[in-house]
Specification:
Rossmann fold; 10 helices; alpha/beta; three-stranded antiparallel beta sheet
Length: 274
Amino acid sequence: MDVEVDLEIRLLLEAIFDRYHYDFRQYAQASLKRRLTQACDVLGVATLSGLQEKVLHEPEAFATLLQYLTVQVSDMFRDPEFFLAIRRHVVPHLATYPSVKIWCAGCSTGEEPYSLAILLKEENLLDRSIIYATDINAAALREAAAGVYPLERLRGFTENHRRAGGTSSLSDWYHASGKSAILDPALRRKITFSDHSLATDNVFSEVHLVTCRNVLIYFDHALQARALDLFADALIPRGFLGLGSKESLRFSPAAASFDEFQPRERLYRKKGVA
């Protein structure tokens, strides 16, 4: 039975790649099985073969499936210790450059790039910085570009910001409208949101910091290696890479390109002469 399910998954992912040019063929199998099962329930199909037929003939069904195949869970200043480490240990190096480029890969609905923008503004770096925020989910990118979040989430965001060493009040960066919090458009102007697949697309070059957190855990080893090679190619010598709390360069071929910088917070520094 497992062999049949694995075959159905493989055929489904090949069909999605051929029809929609989204490549999930190197995503971790266990996670894929769980998400595809959830999508079958929501879309009202009994089998993965039925799911394949539905998404091939109904683009709106594929849009629904995409929400299950991509991870859209984030918070502003998620894992505050990570942002505190960036503030204390990475920002002093970024401040030595006349301009700063940051690539936030797998940005989901935008919480992380906006957090980075606020941090950079508090450290007087945002005016000479640009943040490239990328994801494969077009719906998530539209939400990110809008910069609007449920007001009920702001209490958690505010506590994270405080623990991340925030030097302002988070309320300085949004205004309330009904049940929504609308972020300051000045933050949005420093962020470029765009579609990008770590499975198929090329690099953003000459960046000083890459963050890609809680994304690689959903890839198999080959796709993890591809993504890490992209990051190494994108970074300037002595640039910085930030990964998620459960991710590491250990045992990866890319490890040879980096030094551990703040190991506890999964911050690495590319080798080379700046």
